[in-house]
Amino acid sequence: MNHWLIKSEPNTYSWDDFVKLGRDHWDGVRNYQARNNLKTMLAGDLALFYHSVNEKAVVGLAVVVREFYPDPTSTNDAWVVVDLVPIQKLKNSVTLAMIKEDDRLSEMVLVKNSRLSVQPVSQEAFDIIIGMSEI
Question: Is the pTM of this model over 0.85?
Answer without folding.
Answer: yes
